[in-house]
Specification:
The complex is a heterodimer of chains A (158) and B (1129). Chain A is built from 5 helices and 3 strands, in the order αββαβααα. Chain A is α+β, with helices and mostly antiparallel strands and 158 residues long. Chain A has a single domain, classed as 2-Layer Sandwich (GMP Synthetase, Chain A, domain 3). Chain A has a 3-stranded mixed beta sheet. In chain A, strand 1 and strand 2 form a beta hairpin. The longest helix of chain A has 15 residues. The termini of chain A are far apart. Chain B has 1129 residues and is mainly α. Chain B has a domain of 139 residues. Chain B is 73% helix and 0% strand. In chain B, helix 6 packs parallel to helix 8, helix 8 runs parallel beside helix 11 and helix 45 packs antiparallel against helix 47. The longest helix of chain B has 26 residues. The radius of gyration of chain B is 42 Å and the shape is globular. Chain B starts with 5 loop residues before the first helix and ends with a helix. Classes of the chains: A alpha+beta (158), B mainly alpha (1129). Chains A and B meet through loops of A and helix 58 of B.
Chain lengths: 158, 1129
Amino acid sequence: MVMGLINANPVIHEKKERRVRQAPETTDENAVEPIDQLEIFDHIRDIKDPEHPYSLEQLNVVTEDSIELNDESNHVRVTFTPTVEHCSMATVIGLCIRVKLIRSLPPRYKVDIRVAPGSHSTEAAVNKQLNDKERVAAALENPNLLDMVEECLSPTFD
Amino acid sequence: MARVLPGEWVPHVEAYVDVSRPAAQHSASVDALAALVNKDKLTLFDLVSKMEMYLTTTDHIVRSRGILLLGEILSRISVKWLDVNTITTLSDFFISRLSDWQAIRGALVGCLALLHRKQGVGCIVIADVKRIVESFLQNVQVQSLAAADRKLCFQILSCILDRYPEVVKTMDGEQLYWICEAIDEEKDPECLKLSFHVVEVVMKLFPDPSGLAAQFASEFFEILSKYFPVYFTHGVGDDLNATRDDLSRALMHAFCSTPYFEPFAIPLLLDKLSSSLPLAKIESLKYLDNCIRFYGTDRMVRHASAVWFKLKEVIFSSSPEEFLLTSGSPKDAEKNKNQMVLEALKCLKTAIMCIDSSDKDLFINLILLDEDIVNKIHSISSEEKSILSSLEDLAQLHALGSVISILSESSTYLCTRVLQEHFTQLVDILGTSTDYESRQLNTCNGSSSAADNYGALYLSVQMLTSCREVALVSYADCSSIKLAKESWWLILEKKLDRLIHFLGSFLTIDSESMQSMFRQEYVSCAVKGLLTLATFPEQCSPLTANAYEDILAMLTSVIISKFENVDLWRLSLKALTSIGSSIGEFHASQKEVIYCQTVVDKIVSLVESYDGPMPLSLRLEASYEIGTAGFNYMLRVARSLEGAVVTNISKTNGGMECTEHVAHLFECYSGQVLPWLFTSGGINELALSFAMHLLDEIKDLTMLDRIGSQGLLDSLMAGMKLLVGVCTEEQQTRIVQKAYSMVSSVIPLPLKSMAYHLLSADELVPSHTVQETALVGMLSSVIVGLRPQTPAPDMVVMINLFTVFLLNGKLPAAYALASVFNKYLHNPEFSHENQLDKILDGILERCFSTVLASNQSKISQSGNVLSKIDILSGLAWIGKGLLMRGDEKVKDISMFLLKCLCSDETLATIPSHEEESYVNDSSNTSIATSAAGAFHVMMSDSEVCLNKKFHARIKPLYKQRFFSIMMPIFLSKIKEATSMTTKLALYRAFGHIISNAPVPAVITEAHQILLVMVDSLAKLSVDIQDKDLVYNLLLVLSGMLMDEKGKECILDNVHITISVLTQLVSYPHMMVVRETALQCLVAFSTFPHSKVFPMRRKVLQAAIKALDDKKRAVRQEAVRCRQTWQSFA
């Protein structure tokens, strides 16, 4: 059976100019630069969409504002918006974001990934799937799925 | 000349004729034969008679090869003289062969070679050229040939047209028709380039209105027009001899070749202007520009209005969006759009300049009275549109401004007409609500700038600029402009006061009170207006002297009082500088006086004053910039800086601020002002007088006392070095003599006795007064800056003096000694070269014994240790001086330093009381540390002395040499060392040598030093003092990782290297060390996985830990490192 693309014609948004961080004004070796929203956004903005050659940023799936962070209580929440309501790729996108953050953040963090409320037809199911440790681990055991995730993540390591 | 035997060259012929041989052999045979002919070892007659069979056989393939061989040889002997008979025979032959279509290549090559021959070496006769043309037209069907043959045909054609035009002059229509046929449907780019050229030349040959060009214009143009616009996507890499630009240029020349193309070309170009392809538009604009130039007024006048309407469309086309589809990204579209507008404006300018109609008002009627233009200007002057609301409005306004200024710049008449039409009105709009007081009131109320009509402001400034351009062109006979009734000059003069007043008001009102988002535009426009007014050529400037002074005063007051507003400040400064330089251009003497009084004096006085609200850096910037306007101004600036330094020295209440102030002044003086003066005038009397002045100032003992105690000495010494450094030898001699005489008059040393021998230890004066130290410091900085050829007085006395101070731990004395020994300063006393060596030996001996002294005598006071450390670093400087000139004695010093490094080892063997050994130990450690530091001094580059600026002698590769001499010694010492402290000291010293040596040199020795390096990294990472050294060593290691040979070596020791790197990932003292260590670990990804895999777990642990680093840069590297190593699985 030939599968059509789920969203054949997505809206492409302009990539935002990378906000260049100011060189830290103090050259103090001990000054702490805490992890912030932009840093986490930098980790995930370049993840490639599973079915289009565009990044999640270009498709407006993730934005800087969709990231909530509490550095003291070691908690991150990423809320992403699938391009169409019935998008079956939502779980894959969520999985990509999770894998990327697991690899990029210190282990003390608890990462919480959700689809934006009202943006997906099976919102609750997707959220549950994405935050279930066992199911995530099981998904990553699947070599096909893992390859797909690796491919989507590859632009983020350039 | 001996002839070669046929047996030797005939095989070449056979090889060439044989098609089965490789191409390389073919070309080799032709080269060999041509060389023989060129050297007269083979005559053409012999060649042809032997080749007869090949030239006449009925086998097409062999015959064509034979003819081609002859043609190729002929084209390679183009500089060899041939007699008329040979030429005629060859021409006969090749002309007859043109009809032989199977073998045409050879005939074409031969004809081309004949045609290319120059006068003087025997060239083809005109009659034969005629016959070539005839035979060519009769027998050759160009379009039925292969591409390479077609290229030859076009080459022949263009060669005939370029070199023998008289032959073609007599052509008839049929022949021209043949050319049309030949180029029709051509597609090969190289052929096309040639064929465009052919058309160009043919058309130029027949300028007669009833001539052939006029008849055939439509035919030719029909063929050419198919190629416009040139669309050609091959890049540079395609190995073609033509680029798109070449083709486009050739086609353009063909288009412009004759005015008879005009009825066809202009409609085509105008039509293509409406194309949606940006390329087509830009090309049409370029072609149009050229065609207008070449077709002439008579033909172009009738197109003038059509051209204007089309150009107007392009210039005012509102947005770049229409090209988004065709040009990809919005940035490209923007760029295309800008280029298009530029080309269109250029084209408009050409049109106005070149179409010189009898109707003077042609363009006035077309452009100025154009309905759209009138509407636009009208809407600007109406109240509602007075404030800019969007970027689009701004773009439209700029387009309008450009059109108007192009029109008015073109001639005095047009300028006058434009000004008559609009200027008065625009300035009146500006003026209506702009009484200064009411504006101030308005701004206070916050209702402000509603009345500031940016459009009117912009347009009037644009017109001002045009007036200036016109004035620049015609300022020789400006009197006529002034006298002419209703000229632009009179119009301008009438409104001048109002305009200046208005423009000036932008500079004086407060910046915050104007809330318009285009505030910046207003201000820069106003400054531009003032600048334009002030830079009119003096002869026809509409400004009175008073008005000129007013403008300068306004700008200057901005500089003095409005430095918080950086943009305005910079703009005004730039404007003032341009005004200053324009004075020089026009030799305007009256203006110069005013400028000096109102601008230069005031700005320069900023530097002279010590206090003031303005930051010093801005004051210095302002004066330097103003100085760049002219040589004399810069001299003023230099003098005022000098004055400022001197007054600051003599000021009683100084302190830290004062020191910094003087340092800044010196920096500006020697870093900016002096270099500028050098490049533009090449005089340095200034530096001399400044140095003398400084010396005069410090003559006074109380002054010296203060300088020494306030810490001013350092900046004075630094300044003095720079000043001396730029002086010539004669000037340096004067300075050094003066400084020396001052020293010898003040310091109560037995100078006379010092002239002959070194002082013995007990003659040493234990400590010197502050004044003496300061004085010797100044003398030493004079010595540091000297050139090697400069003669210095009483050198031995000076050396002695410095030695005494060195032994008291005064570093400046060491700099001076190092410079002396590095340069071997020219001095008649040292006629035999050994003397200086002996003195050096003596000094070293003394230093060594002083440093070692207390070790034996067990008197260890802390003060003593401190001065010993200073002596050690003094030794290091002398060592550096010797090392740089490649002197052998550097070995003595480095051996001594090594001894100091290992000193606690030797002491450990001597039994001693416990408390004493404790004291001794600490003193020895600090001596060992400073001995390690000494190697850093020797290997690194320094700003203080011994560099290019101070004329040091630098032997090439001296660092590399030192590295390879010291390496084996260090390696064995490190092996021998037993105690940890000694090892650390050795590591430090060796680390300094490694990290300062050129990386390629280190890498070649990688197999020997890698383990030592890695171990040093591990051991040195404990102490925070060594953090810079750790970083530098790590950089060397990363250099090795990038090198093939280094990699091999690291591969042998991969485990230890990686474990040290993983330790450094959590190095607490320096962020860049952690970052670099992670980068090094990433670099291991290119190593064989089997080798590095065992280390994976360890590296991943370190990387995961680094994910939580406190610095962001480290975290980013950690992510990369982790990903790289994770994927090894």
